[in-house]
Write a structure and sequence with these properties.
The protein is an alpha/beta fold. The strands form 3 sheets. Strands 2-1-3-10-4 form a 5-stranded mixed sheet, sandwiched between helices. It has 3 domains: 118 residues, 3-Layer(aba) Sandwich (D-Maltodextrin-Binding Protein, domain 2), CATH 3.40.190.10; 82 residues, Periplasmic binding protein-like II (D-Maltodextrin-Binding Protein, domain 2), CATH 3.40.190.10; 111 residues, 2-Layer Sandwich (Double Stranded RNA Binding Domain). The longest helix has 18 residues. The chain is built from 12 helices and 13 strands.
C-alpha cells in the first residue's frame, strides 16, 4: 500500500470536516490514502475575544510550524483566517471551489435581523459583523462570543442569546442540524470577509513534484482569481483578517466584480466601492505583466487580479479608510 499523505488540521469539528472533504478529493486525484494529523493551534486554546487578540494568524501559526518541521505534508486552512503574507518556504498550492460565501442569522422565531426588538442579544466575535449589526439592527446588543458552531447554536436554542451570526459555508461543511430559523444575508447589502467560504491548501515550496501536481488538481481558477483580489485589498489596507472590512469578488467570464466596504467599529460610518474590470483584456494591458501583445499571449491574470486589489485599497484609503482600520491588526 502506498505511503499516506499527511494532512495537518486543527482539532475543531469544522476544521476536520473541511479537511476531510479535501482529503477525499485528493485521494481520488492521487490514488494515495490521506490521513489527518490533528494539531492544536493558539486559536483553539486562547479563549480571549478575537477583537482583543487580533486573530491574525492564531489559527495558522502552529500548523505552519508543524508543516515546516516535517510533521505533515500539507495543510487546509479557512482562507478568511489566514494572514495575507505567506511565510518563506511555503506556498498556497490550491484554492478549491468556493462554498456559499454568505453569512446567516439564526434565531428561534425567524424574526429578521433588522426587525429584532430593542435590547435583543446577537452573538458574534467578528469586528466586521459587529459593525454590520450596529448598522442593520441599531437597537440590538452585540455579545462577543467564541466557541464551536454547536455551542454557539446552543446559546440561541437555550434562550441565552436571541440570535447568532455564522458563515453559511461552515454550517454546510458540518451538515449542522438545528431547530433554529435561518436568514441568509445577501452579499449586496451584507458583504463578507475576504476569502469567506474558501479554503487554502498549503504545502512546502520544496514539496515533491508529485504532491504539488496532485494538489494543483484541487485548484479552482475562478476562486483563486476572486480571493486574490479580495486579499490584495486586505493587504493594501494594511489591515488584519479581523479588521471591520468586507470584500467579495465574483468572476463572470473574463471580467471580475468586486464589492468592498470598510466600517467604523460602531457601524456609524462606512466607505465602499463597487468595481468591475476585464482581467483578460484592458486591465492586463494597463496593469498586467507586459504590453498588449503580452496580454494576447497570456499575461498573468493573477497578477492583474492582485494589482486590481491594491488599486481598490488605494482608492479606499484616498476616501479615508485609514481612519477606520486599525494598523495594530496589520497583516
Amino acid at each position: 500500500m502506498s505511503t499516506p499523505i499527511r494532512l495537518g488540521t486543527r482539532r475543531s469539528a469544522l476544521a476536520q470536516a473541511q479537511s476531510g472533504h479535501v482529503a477525499t478529493a485528493l485521494e481520488k486525484l492521487s490514488g494515495r490514502p490521506v490521513e489527518l494529523v490533528p494539531i492544536t493551534s493558539e486559536g483553539d486554546t486562547n479563549r480571549a475575544s478575537l477583537s482583543e487578540i487580533g486573530g491574525q494568524g492564531i489559527f495558522a501559526t502552529r500548523l505552519r510550524e508543524a508543516l515546516l518541521a516535517g510533521g505533515c505534508d500539507f495543510l487546509v486552512h479557512s482562507l478568511k483566517d489566514l494572514p495575507t503574507a505567506v511565510p518563506e518556504g511555503l506556498v498556497i498550492a490550491a484554492t478549491p471551489k468556493r462554498e456559499d460565501p454568505r453569512d446567516v442569522v439564526l434565531t428561534r422565531d425567524g424574526v429578521p435581523l433588522h426587525e429584532l426588538r430593542s435590547g435583543s442579544t446577537v452573538g458574534t466575535g467578528s469586528p466586521r459583523r459587529i459593525a454590520q449589526v450596529h448598522r442593520r439592527a441599531p437597537g440590538a446588543e452585540v455579545v462577543d462570543i467564541r466557541g464551536n458552531v454547536d455551542s454557539r447554536l446552543a446559546r440561541v436554542v437555550s434562550g441565552e442569546l436571541d440570535a447568532v451570526i455564522l458563515a453559511v459555508a461552515g454550517l454546510s461543511r458540518l451538515d449542522a442540524r438545528t431547530p433554529l430559523q435561518r436568514e441568509e444575508l445577501g452579499l449586496a447589502e451584507w458583504p463578507t470577509a475576504p476569502g469567506q467560504g474558501s479554503l487554502a491548501v498549503e504545502t512546502r515550496a520544496d514539496a515533491p513534484q508529485e504532491l504539488l501536481d496532485a494538489l494543483a488538481g484541487l485548484d479552482d481558477r475562478d476562486t483563486r482569481l476572486a480571493i486574490t483580489v479580495e486579499r490584495a485589498i486586505l493587504q493594501g489596507l494594511d489591515a488584519g483578517c479581523q479588521a471591520p472590512m468586507a470584500a467579495h469578488a465574483i468572476v463572470h467570464g473574463s471580467s471580475i466584480r468586486v464589492r468592498t466596504v470598510v466600517y467604523a467599529t460602531d457601524g456609524g460610518r462606512r466607505i465602499g466601492l463597487d468595481v468591475t474590470e476585464d482581467l483578460n483584456g484592458e486591465y492586463i494591458r494597463r496593469n498586467g505583466s507586459g504590453n498588449g501583445a503580452d496580454a494576447a499571449d497570456g499575461a498573468d491574470p493573477m497578477h492583474a487580479a492582485r494589482e486590481l486589489g491594491f488599486t481598490v485599497a488605494r482608492r479606499l484609503l484616498d476616501q479615508g479608510a485609514a481612519g477606520l482600520v486599525s494598523r495594530e491588526q496589520s497583516s
